[in-house]
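FIELD: query
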Amino acid sequence: MNQRMDDNDLVQLAVQLSTAAATEILAIRAAGFTVDEKSDASPVTLADRRAEKIIVEGLRAATDIPVIAEEEVAAGKITDPGAEYWLVDPLDGTREFAAGRAEFAVNIGLVRNRRAVLGAVANPLMHEVHYGIVGVGAWKQSPAGIMPISARRTPPEGLTVMASRHYQHDPALAEFLARYKIASLINIGSALKFCKLAEGLADFYPRLGRTMEWDTAAPQAVLQAAGGSTRTLDGQTLLYGKPGFENPPFLSHGLE
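FIELD: result
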């Protein structure tokens, strides 16, 4: 194990492993798969399990940093995190993946002293990875190369809002958004919503429903690295190490 990796090394490790997991996910999608149900009634597939194995083994081989991974937690294996730990969602957007949609991602984030400090979010179908280090910068790796990305200020015509596909008919969301000037509303699944904000293609992502820490650590780090923010409804930065790894409602913004 290498204990002397700096943050740039760590984020590159996350990029590498998220890309490897994305390749495995696409191979399983092409071959066909079944959908099982976890104890909380959420879906899980072979792609979730295989992708997690690649990531977890890779992180544990390369670093001494504890790893908290979604499917391990679901199976009852909960690692003591300490002050610094990885949070892994090997297939964020399993519902979309299982339904044959394009909106699924691979999330690998690093938490340090309760804050998301760096992360990588792979978009398997687009062969892209958004990644960043808070306080340093954010980038998008794609077949066209690597380019820096940054959040934007809301244009005069109003907010481009990203919202969850799963909660798109939630009356509470419609009521919440009624107070804002909105130019367009786009419903998609997974952490890719954060990436749209980080890339300056959207402005606001309100999440009033339930999420888990592995859903948000990597994309929150990318968004904050790009100049945006993710805060609880009382205006505090979304923090980690909460009971049961469960997040409260939050609001993600581009540049404010």
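FIELD: remark
The chain has seven helices and 16 strands.
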